[in-house]
Amino acid sequence: MSILKEFTKGIYKENPVFRLALGLCPTLAVTTSVENGIGMGIAATSVLISSNFIISLVRNFVPKKIRIPIYIIVIATFVTIVEMLMQAYNPALYKSLGIFVPLIVVNCIILGRAEAFASKNTVARSVIDGIGMGIGFTFSLVIISSIRELLGNGTFYGFPVAPLSFKPVLVMILPPGAFLTLGYILAFFHWLDMRKTGKD
After folding, report:
1. In the predicted model, is pLDDT for residue 10 greater than 80?
2. Rounded distance, CA 28 to CA 24, Å?
3. pTM of full prediction above 0.85
């Protein structure tokens, strides 16, 4: 697979949220605002790229029997670094994301890429894969959070954008709104697939 395809697969073809349905816990929980979505996306992408780099670098030295604990230690190290940086430089965002920042350690997207890709490929391809998957994850969070914030608050990234007559649909910023938004987006992607195969 070419470097370009390696990069773009995470954005659409193998999008972690919309295609593979991975990382749904933070996706549904933190997407009440675009700021939260971008913050979580950047945090997860940073950890994904860094852990892919290190795991690919040491893949030939790690015994197969203990590879998963080693991967978790590597991922946890980078999560701790990201968590401390976020707490120091953006405490409001850190507080808003809450427990979902440390839970990046067990995010199935990151652990899955470590096991399925970084442990079997070169450093360069692993980093490209991490960037693509990270952008795809961030893209998903931003789309979902944009819809929820706009309909639930009438704002975008905290700025009012709706007309004065707009009445917020409060359910959109509650947990059911996350499921509804994701469900409609997944249905849209399924419809696109059906059109491509001529089964619409």
Report:
1. yes
2. 6
3. yes
